[in-house]
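Not sure how to ask, but would you mind making up any protein sequence you like and the tokens describing how it folds?
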Amino acid sequence: MKYTYLLLALVPLPQFALAQGNPGPYINMEIFHVIAAIGFAAILLGFILAFSRQLLDYRIKNKLTESGLPEPIITSLLSQDAHTGKFNMAKWAIIFAGIALACTIIYYTLPLGMHSLAILSGCLSVSFGAYFFVLHKFKQ
């Protein structure tokens, strides 16, 4: 029973530890909210785009099968490259690696400013260039 009272006495102790000043350069919460809203909108729009693409592909396949065309013609019209999924995954991996590199560089060059946007755009352009070279090398 006496440990319970001791534990209850120690519960507010972390609140006293938070009574310090700002110890380091943290990102402003307004900037975080703007970035979170842009990220959420990008994810939502990407989902809508992927969903509409799947729906339209499904409708095209149904129309072609209902039209009575021979099967070899339908398969030639609907054929997709077997490596498309792999290249899509490689594209996103390279892009996210570029974003991670940009965020790391931005963290070490605080405070945030116009140079942060330049670093982000530079790293993204390098990552898209790397994806182009990977696609060019392996598509042949």
Q: What stands out?
A: Residues 127 and 135 are 12 Å apart (CA to CA). The chain has two domains: 27-79, 80-140.
